[in-house]
Design a protein that fits this description.
This protein is mainly alpha-helical. It has helices at 12-53, 61-84, 100-132, 145-167. The protein has one domain (12-167). 68% of the residues lie in helices and 0% in strands. Helix 1 (12-53) runs antiparallel to helix 2 (61-84) and helix 2 packs parallel to helix 4 (145-167). The longest helix is centred in the N-terminal third of the chain and has 42 residues, at 12-53. It starts with 11 loop residues before the first helix and ends in a 13-residue tail after the last helix.
Length: 180
Amino acid sequence: MTLEPAIGIPFPMLRKLSDLPKLAITALIIFAIINLLIGVVLRYFVGAITDWLDVDPVPFTWVEELGEMSLAWLTLVGAAVGIQQRAHFTLHVFTHKLPPTAQLWIHRFNHALIVGVGILAAWYGYQLCLLNRTLATPGLQLNLAWLYASAVVGGILIAVYGLAMLVAPPPQDEPLHGTE
């Protein structure tokens, strides 16, 4: 399976710009794996050594906080990339029996719903950012607005990619059924 965007992006600069979310989720996956490995080492190995030496334990609450933030960002930006690449799940039960024009309108309606969900996620994420901007995480004292900003960024990307799919012609590798 190729990881090319489903939308043909004509300009090289826009193509590079559309690669940024993919690079971000790649970096987030690497970061999350390293973070979890550090958490395991601190909990099971360093914790056992500090107990054996009878010294103060090394705090590792920050591992959970960073893991939670990276998971939120990874999920929402990754969902947008999945929409851009048409990797989301679709179920064609009755649509193949409809005329091609009806299938096209169902295709457009589905992507209009995706745009709506993206806008809704961005709006409520923004409201949560405003509501929680004075709060901080207990371990690292990071502003909680950074956690909820993932919904804003992911929602905007979902809406933009959904809108691009809405106006783009249906994919050539998935022809409208009923035309044979």
